[in-house]
Structure formats: structure tokens, C-alpha cells
């Protein structure tokens, strides 16, 4: 086996590491809310749907859990703790197995920060990290028993090709996302998302042991909202207009703005279901829109929204435009 | 299972990360020589002593390899590549298994650099890293098939207690190591080493699958040389005298020098054999003093020796004395 797929995917989308004021760790309350909302569902599914017999663990084989696209904050550790407790309840009547947890993210993720934040006392699992894109293979065949991924699958493996190609109908002139863009741009993003989820499911289909479960928390748009409606006034559009303003001020070049696009796509439940069913590696046990309590007060101020966006996107923007523009860009934003 | 042991061991001995002029990656030619010298031996032992039947791999189970105390340089990747090729030759007549490699070092190791240096194209194994002290448990029971550790086991889990205790016969006044010190100091180091190796072997005894092999490359002193002879003029003694000079110049306090000791011990083959046999978890298949070719030209200049020592010890010295003294200390050295 050659880990070929790893080389096909750009490794440029890690979010801000460390724990400074612009770090993801300090600006991911929204993700925490999502995790909390999913907790009950995950507990129920592990209790009701995980089939210990079907897992057919070998003697002394540990339960292996993976968090894909974990980043480096505290949310991943809390999420894993919850999954672990649900699994331990499940094994109450069996000899308690050992647990091994694999934290995955892009090679450029700040794993040093992640390791520094792992609990030392009373940690009930062996921890490991796995660098690389989850759009390719990361683990040996049938070696995982529970896969978790939260707020990560909306990141595309790359910006769709046509979007940065002047000769393509999907060329996205003067914008950095499909928000407010012609239909062709949106479709190019949508196609890329479908391809990426398909690659993700192909890889996990090989890595998950028979009887294993996967819980994916994916930011999405309700089916009832059609694409142009939701997109007006969104963060990417606003950030894009800031970049266009900076272009007009002569700070960044037009070519730079035209070739920059956010590799992010927000799917619809219906679309996602179609992709998963078309892929065929997994059957959907449950699919729900999470009710995130206090969603409206999690990020009350523009300043906090800016910090949140900066934690997510700084590395990506810096790579394309250089780091001189970052402070000014988020100031304007 | 609780990973209790992890909390008992201080996490302060990681060597210099990154790839700057003072990094370990740029100053570890000596370790490269050791690895090259061990290559043939490891190949032979895998070919002759590894018992595939006894490993009794489950269906689709990967071969799991661990490099303990891997640091963050290129040497670890070359060493693993060699082990992998030897294992693949071994499995020539069987279906080729998948391989998963675990790179271990202290939590404070620069894993970000390690991941950045992993080969992307043609890598024939799934990579993961495991943070924590190898003096405690790091992996699930019976989950490893080949364990490798090079130039790491001479690092003690801590400075022996008595050595920094004014009331203890082993108090090591005005020195930073057992070199040139009274017998009691040497014995305190020797006792700590025996305890540490015992903990290491206990942990590995549980983690290595039956039939698995372990290759340990440990810096040691030939049995024929008794302790006071080798120690005069050694690096630690010289570095200690530099610190004492700085104390006389009023740059560092006497108390700081008296409480600083290097947590490093160079064992003897005879002593190591006794510890391993006394522990009882492993049988020794082969034990040899490596013939390192070109040893005398690997580190020809004092400047290079200084860089090498700085890469190894800077973090440790900085933690105790603060970073103001580092440049001046290695200047004097």
C-alpha cells in the first residue's frame, strides 16, 4: 500500500494554532455549541446502534477512535471524552477494552499545541495524532471503530479549477466565494464538494471496521433556502468586498483578488444524502439538523465574529496575499 | 486502563526543534552514523529472528512499528525506512501487510517539524505520532510488532533526587553531572538509570505483541573503562566548568548551578545486560558494541561539537537558568 492520495491534496488550510488572541483555540465557541448539541445524539446512537458482536474485536484489541479535522483546540478533547464515556457505558457488561484515539488534521496543523492541551491526569485513552488530508487514506484497513468529524467537511480539498480560470464559464471575477456569484460558480463548488465527500467516504469505507460507526457534523444550509437567498450579506461576501476595497486602494493587485477563492462549501441535507447514498460505502442511520441552543448569543459582537473568521482564514489568506495585508484586512472587515 | 504513568514523568527534555542553525535536525550527524552502523544488524535480526507465525496477525492487521524518542530530524525517517524495507523482504512470500509507524517523543518535542519532514510521495506506511514519556505506557496492549529507539535511553526520567539535596551524601556541589564527582553521585545516577530502564521494559513488555522484536541503540561506555577514567575532559564536565565560571563572574547564582544537573547516564554493556535480565520481560537475542565508521571525523571542529551540544541541551538549560545566559554559555564553551 502506498499512501498515494496524500500527495494529491494541498496542505494549506490549517487554522490558526497556539492560544494567542487570534488563535482558533480562543475563537471557537461556535464549534463548542455544535459539539454540545450533537452530544445527546452521539450518546443515543452508540447506545442503540453500535453492535459489539459485529465489531468482533481480537483479543486485547483496543477500540480505536479517530477525530478527523480536529484542529488544535479544547473542543476536540471534550468531544472525544464524551464519545469515550458513551463507549464505556456500552461495554459495561463486557471486559472494558483499552482505547486509542487518533487526532487528525492537515500536516500544517499545530499538533504541538494539541499535544500540550491533552489531559495528563486521568486520561483514559492512548493518544496519537495523524497528519494528512482526510480526503485520502490515513489509517490501515478496518482499523477504526468510531470516526468523528466536526465542522471540517465543508473545507474543500481545493478551490474548484474553473473558478480561477479566465476562460472558464465558472470564472469568479471580483469575488472570493460563490456567494452572490453566477450559477456556474456555485455549481463548480458543488461539484468539488461532491467529489471530496466521495473521496472521504471511499477512504473511511476501507478504514472503518465492520460494525463501526461514524458521526459527521457538517455545517449546512436548510433545504428550503435556495442558494442566492442565503448568500447575500454572508461573511465570505463581506470579506471579499474588503479585498476589492483594498484592490481599489492599490494595496493588493486585481490579479491576486481574482485568483483567490475560499475553499469552503455549505451543503444541503438533501444534497449530502444523495452523495452518501450514491457513494454506497455507508448507510445513514440518522441524519438531523442540530438545534444549537443560544446560537444567537454565541457570537454577539462584530469584533468576535472578526476574530473567529481570522482564526479560521488567516493562514489561507496569508499564503495567497502575504502577511502584510492581514491586520489591515481584518481592520476593514 | 488509565495512562497514569504519563503524569509521573517530567516532560522537559525535548531537544531543539525546527531546522535553524541550533536545531537538532541540523546537528545530528553523529546519530546518523550510529543509525548507519546499526542498519546491517537490524536487517539481519529481522531476517533471521522475527517469527511471522508467532506474530499471529489478525486478518488485515497492519504491522505496527514504533520509534521511541524519535526527536524531529531526518534520522528517524531514514531509520524507519530501513526497518520497513527489511520487514517487506521478510514478508516477500506472504501477502504484503500494511504498515503503521508511530513516532514517539516527549510532549514538548517539535512534532510539527517532524510531520513537515515526512515523505509525501511514495511513503509506504501510515504515519502517526504519540506524545509522552517512554518510561510509561504509550500504546495499547500487544499492539506493536517492532520497537526501535536510538540515542534516547541515556536520558533519565529525572535528575536523581539526592544529587540536588544538600543533606544527601550524593549532593553534587559545583558540578552538573557525575563526571569527576564522588562515587555517591555516580551511584545515584546509576540507580536512576536502572529504575528508568526497568520502567521502560515493563511498559514495552506489555505493548509488544508476542513474537515482536525491539532494537535499542544506547550510548554506552566499554566495560573495560572504569568510571573516573572516562569522565575527565568530557563535554558535561566542560559545560559544568563554564557554568561555574559564569557563577564566579556573577552571571548565574551558586544555588542555580548547584541545583542544575544533566539527566543523562552512559551505561556499560555489562550493567545494561544485568538490568534487562533482572527485569525479565525480554530475552536478549543479540547485544553488540557498534563500530561507527569515521567516528573520529564526524565532529571534527570544536564549533560543531558546541552546536551539537546546544541542540541537545539548550531547552534543558534554558528552563533552569532562563534564556539570557544561553548565547554567552555556549560562547564560553
TrEMBL record, chains A, B:
<protein>
    <submittedName>
        <fullName>S-adenosyl-L-methionine-dependent methyltransferases superfamily protein, putative</fullName>
    </submittedName>
</protein>
<dbReference type="GO" id="GO:0032259">
    <property type="term" value="P:methylation"/>
</dbReference>
<keyword id="KW-0460">Magnesium</keyword>
<dbReference type="Pfam" id="PF03492">
    <property type="entry name" value="Methyltransf_7"/>
</dbReference>
<keyword id="KW-0808">Transferase</keyword>
<dbReference type="InterPro" id="IPR029063">
    <property type="entry name" value="SAM-dependent_MTases_sf"/>
</dbReference>
<dbReference type="InterPro" id="IPR005299">
    <property type="entry name" value="MeTrfase_7"/>
</dbReference>
<dbReference type="GO" id="GO:0008757">
    <property type="term" value="F:S-adenosylmethionine-dependent methyltransferase activity"/>
</dbReference>
<keyword id="KW-0489">Methyltransferase</keyword>
<dbReference type="InterPro" id="IPR042086">
    <property type="entry name" value="MeTrfase_capping"/>
</dbReference>
<keyword id="KW-0479">Metal-binding</keyword>
<dbReference type="GO" id="GO:0046872">
    <property type="term" value="F:metal ion binding"/>
</dbReference>
Amino acid at each position: 500500500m502506498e499512501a498515494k492520495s496524500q500527495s494529491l491534496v494541498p496542505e494549506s488550510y490549517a487554522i490558526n494554532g497556539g492560544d494567542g488572541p487570534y488563535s482558533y483555540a480562543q475563537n471557537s465557541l461556535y464549534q463548542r455549541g455544535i459539539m454540545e448539541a450533537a452530544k445527546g445524539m452521539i450518546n443515543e446512537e452508540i447506545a442503540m446502534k453500535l453492535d459489539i458482536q459485529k465489531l468482533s474485536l481480537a483479543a486485547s484489541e483496543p477500540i480505536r477512535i479517530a477525530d478527523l479535522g480536529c484542529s488544535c483546540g479544547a473542543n476536540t478533547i471534550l468531544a472525544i471524552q464524551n464519545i469515550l464515556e458513551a463507549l464505556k457505558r456500552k461495554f459495561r457488561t463486557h471486559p472494558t477494552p483499552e482505547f486509542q484515539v487518533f487526532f487528525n488534521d492537515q500536516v500544517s496543523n499545530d499538533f504541538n499545541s494539541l499535544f500540550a492541551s491533552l489531559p495528563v491526569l486521568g486520561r483514559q485513552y492512548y493518544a496519537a495524532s495523524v497528519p494528512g488530508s482526510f480526503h485520502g487514506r490515513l489509517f490501515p484497513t478496518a482499523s477504526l471503530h468510531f470516526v468523528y468529524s466536526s465542522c471540517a467537511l465543508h473545507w474543500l480539498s481545493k478551490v474548484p479549477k474553473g473558478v480561477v480560470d479566465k476562460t472558464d464559464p465558472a470564472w469568479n471575477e471580483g469575488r472570493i466565494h460563490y456567494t452572490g456569484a453566477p450559477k456556474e460558480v456555485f455549481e463548480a463548488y458543488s461539484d468539488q464538494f461532491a467529489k471530496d465527500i466521495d473521496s472521504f467516504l471511499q477512504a473511511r469505507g476501507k478504514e472503518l471496521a465492520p460494525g463501526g460507526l461514524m458521526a459527521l457534523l457538517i455545517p449546512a444550509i436548510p433545504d428550503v433556502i435556495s442558494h442566492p437567498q442565503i448568500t447575500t450579506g454572508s461573511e465570505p461576501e463581506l470579506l471579499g468586498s474588503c479585498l476589492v476595497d483594498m484592490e481599489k486602494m492599490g494595496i493588493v493587485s486585481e490579479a491576486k483578488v481574482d485568483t483567490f477563492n475560499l475553499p469552503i462549501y455549505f451543503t444541503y441535507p438533501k444534497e449530502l444524502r444523495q452523495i452518501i447514498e450514491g457513494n454506497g460505502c455507508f448507510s445513514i442511520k440518522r441524519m438531523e439538523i442540530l438545534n444549537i441552543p443560544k446560537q444567537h448569543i454565541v457570537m454577539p459582537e462584530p469584533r468576535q465574529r472578526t476574530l473567529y473568521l481570522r482564526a479560521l482564514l488567516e493562514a489561507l489568506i496569508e499564503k495567497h496575499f502575504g502577511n502584510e495585508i492581514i491586520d489591515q484586512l481584518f481592520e476593514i472587515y
